Every structure is written in C-alpha cells, then in structure tokens.
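[job 0412] stage=fold_complex status=start
inputs:
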Amino acid sequence: LSSALITLTSDFGYDDGYVGMMKGVIYSINPAALLVDLSHSIAAHNIGQGAFLLHQAYRHFPPTTINLAVVDPGVGTARRAICLIVPEVGYFVGPDNGLFSYIIKAEQERGANLTAFALTDPTYHRAEVSSTFHGRDIFAPIAAHLSLGEAPANFGPAVEIDQLVKLEKFWPEIVQKGQSRLIKGQVAQIDHFGNVITNIPANLLGELTQAQRDKIRFKCGWLTAKGLKQTYGQAKKGQLLILVSSSGFIEVARVEGMAYVYGTGVEGSPKITVGSPLTLSIS
Amino acid sequence: LSSALITLTSDFGYDDGYVGMMKGVIYSINPAALLVDLSHSIAAHNIGQGAFLLHQAYRHFPPTTINLAVVDPGVGTARRAICLIVPEVGYFVGPDNGLFSYIIKAEQERGANLTAFALTDPTYHRAEVSSTFHGRDIFAPIAAHLSLGEAPANFGPAVEIDQLVKLEKFWPEIVQKGQSRLIKGQVAQIDHFGNVITNIPANLLGELTQAQRDKIRFKCGWLTAKGLKQTYGQAKKGQLLILVSSSGFIEVARVEGMAYVYGTGVEGSPKITVGSPLTLSIS
Amino acid sequence: LSSALITLTSDFGYDDGYVGMMKGVIYSINPAALLVDLSHSIAAHNIGQGAFLLHQAYRHFPPTTINLAVVDPGVGTARRAICLIVPEVGYFVGPDNGLFSYIIKAEQERGANLTAFALTDPTYHRAEVSSTFHGRDIFAPIAAHLSLGEAPANFGPAVEIDQLVKLEKFWPEIVQKGQSRLIKGQVAQIDHFGNVITNIPANLLGELTQAQRDKIRFKCGWLTAKGLKQTYGQAKKGQLLILVSSSGFIEVARVEGMAYVYGTGVEGSPKITVGSPLTLSIS
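[job 0412] stage=fold_complex status=done
writing structure:
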C-alpha cells in the first residue's frame, strides 16, 4: 500500500499554491505516494458539482485508491470529517457534507458493504490545525497515513452510513405515466467541450427498443433534443443529439466539429447551469 | 523501461477530470510510470496547434519517452489509431489525423528511420471502449503497455509512414525571388507572454550576414517587425523585435517589461491567431 | 537525496508546455525526483507576487526540499542566477531579482545561517543555453543535480546574503503613534476565494487583549474592516472580517457561503490588487 494512489479533488483552483501545500504535507508523510489531480476547478463551495465529478471518475482508478476530496464551505464549524471505505474500490476522505452522496448511493445499489469513520484523533492530523484549511491540516495527512497502511478505525469512531450527510434531490427520480416514463434529473456538469452531462446513469433507462430510443425526448429549459444516438457520427453538424457519455451518463451534445451548447439559449430564458432541472421522457 | 516517462497532451482542459481518468488507467497498468503533463489547453479540436506544441517540446525529454497525444475530433469514426516510433527519441501514441505531422517531417529531414503501427488489437485496450473517449480507453492503456516494454508490433499491423495523415500546408514554404528569399509560414502559437511563435525553424534561414539579419522583415496582417535580434535586451521597451524562440523557431515579441502583442491590432483588421499566414523576407 | 522533492513555481502558465519541458529536463537528469507544482499562475513578471507565494508555502514541505522558482523578467541580461540554502528547510534556485526576499527576511529573523552560490559553472547547465528560457536551461538542471546530492558550492562562487537583490518595501513597517500602532503593509495575494491576503505575518501583531482584537482596523482604499476574528463562523453572511490566514498572514474575507471581495469597490475608486498599500491599526 505504500505506493498507493491518492487522487485530489477540490475547489481550490490552481493559482494559490493550496494544492501544492497539500501535496507537500502528503509527501512529508509518504514520499512514495502516487498523486493524481482529478480537478481543482469545482465551482467554489459547489458540493454537488464535486460529488458528481467524483462519481464520474472513481471507477477508473486501481482498487485501494485513496480519494481526497475537499469542497468544504463548513470548514471550521462543527461539520464532521470522515473516511468512507468502499470494498474493492478504495477510500474517500473529506468533509461529511454530501460530497460522497453519489458514490454511497451507487455502491449501495451494487450491494457494497460500506463503512465510515470520523476523523477525530489529532494524532493523525498536522500538529497545528488551522480553522480554514482542513484540506492541508486534516484530510491530506489522513490520506497519507492511509497510504502507509494505517487502519481507518484508528482515525476515530465508526459512523453509520445512514448518518452521513446526503445532498438533497441529487439522484434522478422516475415517474411512471401510463405507458411512458419521465425521468427527472439535473445538469451535473457542463464540460470543456460544451457537453451537457446529466446525473442520469444510462442503466436507469433499462432495455429499450430502437423505436423507444428514437422517441426519447430531453428537455432542460430552452434546450430540447430528441433521439438517443450511439455516436456523434449519427447526426449532422450543428444538430443536438442525446448520447451516453464516456462515463455512462446521459448527455446532450451538439455536433459541430466540436460539440457545444454554450450561448445558444433564447434571449431572456434562464441560463442552463450545473443544478438546472431537466427531464427525459421515454414512451 | 518500467519507470518510463509518459507525456500527456490534449484539448481536454483541466476542469472535468478527463486527464485524471487517463492517469488512473495508466497507473492501473503501470504504477511505476512517470507522468508529465505537456498541455491540456490545446484549443478544442485544433490538431495543428497540438501538432506544433508537440514539435516544440518533444526533444526536451529522455530518449524512449512515450508521448500520448489526444486532439481527436474524429473519435468514434473510422479514423486510425497509431503508435509512431522515432529511434533515439521515443514513441508517439494518438489518432492518425495529422497530430504528428511536424515530428515526422522534422525527423525525416534528420534521416531518422520511422515506423508506425495501427492500434487494432483489443487485448491492449480497456475492456469496454466508449465511442467518445479513446484517450482513456485506447491511447492511455497503449501508452502504459509500451512503458512496460510491450513491443509496438503487438498492437496491430504496420502502417507505411507515407500512408499516415498529414496536415495541409503545415511546413513553411521558401520562395526565391532574385536576390531575396520569401519564407511563407503561419502563426503556430501565441504563448502566455504574448509572443507570436511561427512554424519557421530558425535553421531554415541558413547562414546570414549581420546586414542580412538587420534587414529581415516579418509580416502577419497588421503585425510587422524588422531585424533579427539575439535577446530582448537589444531593443527598447515597447518595441517589436524578431527573435529565435527558446525552442528554435522564429518569433515576434514586444519588449515592455513583459513581451506581448495582444490587442494592439488596427481596428477592423483581421485578428492574428493560430494558423494566420505570415511571411519572413530575407534579402 | 535522490528521491528529493522539487517544487516548481513560475509565471509560465499551463498552456504552452514550458513547465512540461522543465520537468523533461529534470527527469532526464534524475528520474527519481518528486515534482510538485506550487503555482504557474504568477502574473507575468510579478516578482513580488511570486516571492510572497513561495513565502506562504515553503514551510509545508519536507526539509531538503528544492524550490525551483522562475519569475524572470531579466532573463538574458547580466542578472545573477543563484542557489540559496536554508538549513533544515532546503534550497531555493532561481534568478537573483528579489524572488527570495521574504524567505531571506523571515529566516534571518529566525536566526538561520543562510548561504548562497552563483550558478556560473556551465557543467551543470544544459549543453545549449537559450537567452530567453533559463528555467529550462539553467534552473531545472541545477535543481536536478541538487536532487542527486551535488554540493551547491560546485555550481559557482559563494555570494554574500546581503549582496543578493531584495524587493523594495516588501516587509511591513510598524509606526508607533502614542498608544496605538500602525502597521503599513501591502496586498500580497487575492486568492481563488476572493480573500485579500496581506504581507503582514500574524506574529507581528504580538500579544493582544480581546479588547484590542475587537478594535483592530484594516484599511486598503475603499476596503475597510474592523475586528480580528478566529473563524468565518464569528460573522454573518455578507460581512467583512479580519482573520489570520491558514498560512499565518492577516487577511480580509467576506462571509457569504464563499468569502470574496471582488467587484465590491466604490465606482471610480482605485482597484485593489496585488501590491496595493494597506494599513492595520491597533490601539
């Protein structure tokens, strides 16, 4: 475990050296750790965006990977700090504020036996803990100690999984209406290429006939699209299409050399952004 | 070779975790790999910009370096995936869409014996290959297997170098006009400091007298400059000067504490950008 | 020392591959080096900003860490290149232009016995040294050779610490006015969260009574705040408060889910930016 992989996710940005300091703390404890930045561009304090990004990525890393995640508006208050353990997947270290909501939900649906511990024992924290930067002072040293093989139970008392804080309405809701189904979800990410990625896992749609695939309708404010395709190649330049994203979520893309959706809204209509509600209807 | 260096270049940006997922895939196969990000800020789908950035950088890495490059507008179509081998330099893994044009041209001029293989054998891909993210599902695992010493011939059939896709007009053209030479090139990069870097390698100018150096003229739309200098110190604050860039290409810079050229164009004149045509005249 | 940690700080940005090339040079010399990016977003040629960022971060890394820092407007001129050695802290490699001013001042106040050497021996530079990119051609190879255990005295002649270039007025000044003290400082950084971080180390305030803490006044142009708090939790949403930053400096933050100060100035008043003068008054 000593050369264990540690991923880092935060809303710290790349400019101020905060991420570098966390790495300095980790390497001070375990110079053999392998560090991978997932993203430090989570919108400041946007727990939902961070939670989804972790969800999208966590299954692409080796088992026993340690995921350090810090989107932490409640730092310095009484909010709990936790280590969540997912068998055959790895560890999640961060504030108990909903950041692991998607992972808990998805892994419980898979039947995984999750456990969690509060990070209360100062033995495993930095000697001096600031009131505003627990990423550096608590979560980074905990991740480093985990990578050295320390047992999570040593960090503090066990916490029941259903006692952990969950995001509100983060998981898509299915409404049956006679012959047709309505899936109510939200925009989970608008990526670098302008793809609008939803929080709806493709497997939530179940088995579909080709006729059903062709009739699927997506609606998010002014943005509408019809027909679930397999690849960009199945639509013409400029067309919107519904796809399964490379991480397994329903997304809407525009084919135009690059796919994008930015700035194509109707004047005066609400902006589409992370968290905007959307529906997918299947009949 | 197990601790081989792998460079990563893409148009994925730093925000969405796509680069992190590629690293997760690589480390899952070879945890001893050394990973270096070259740039993930290539403009979306701008193959020419990616090709030049690789060209500028690739000679600064150890021999046997594996260069993973993904600017891939044709992902999911029939475009070929390749591994290019440059003796004493290393490996280039990516889509066959012109991304290695400069390197092939430069290395052929040096007399290097290049070989290439198509990446068709699924043994070396991820178990599940998406239609939109071959960076993660094909190129990353191939790079990781290369770093473990796998022979490129195992990845698929050999491809003739002259069968590989090349960019159009990417290499500067020399026109002789009586006593004077005109070199027609293009803007290859506008860097963080505002330097306008051309695709003209300095060695294309040949041996020049001081009188010839002083008379060299650069023209790119509204941007003109005269006289090839050795350092910033040879011009005054605010002056434009022609230089050889740190990677050996002709560039135009403005001396002003920092060098920059942004936003100094004549109203209504076309914007200078990556790909803009330019000329260098030597008499 | 062969797996020594090397931090990298510069004004190169993340787009052009310049940082990647420096890493290529380092790994060519020592593939076992551990590299950590501190920040490459220093404003172009802003030595003061780079100097402060190093100051904020350097104590969070293991002893013997090598800090490679390049904000280098004078590259190619006669400005000196140096390696500064701080016992029990590590090495600082970069141009002699004031970039290490804070560290020298802080460590001298701690009574550290500093030494420095000029980097004049070409044996330890790249074979070909450009006139515009000493980060890659001189500082990166020096850092790599240091990480292999090379003695700094081999790089060139010793330089007296008081002969090194210092920034002007970078250190806060204390003015005693009868019963009250005025500390004159400057804005050292405006971070990703909008916190205005000053160059005033909290320990410069000395021991304060609660009454004194409550009466402390901060003034920087239109931005004023009163009362030194311990955490964000001690003020209401939207309020400005004075805090000690996670790295030990006086900062001003606004509580509003996220703390920020951007764009809240009075129309026509001067912009608050890195380098803006400010005062802290204690009575």
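[job 0412] summary: Residues 66 and 143 of chain A are 7 Å apart (CA to CA).
[job 0412] exit 0
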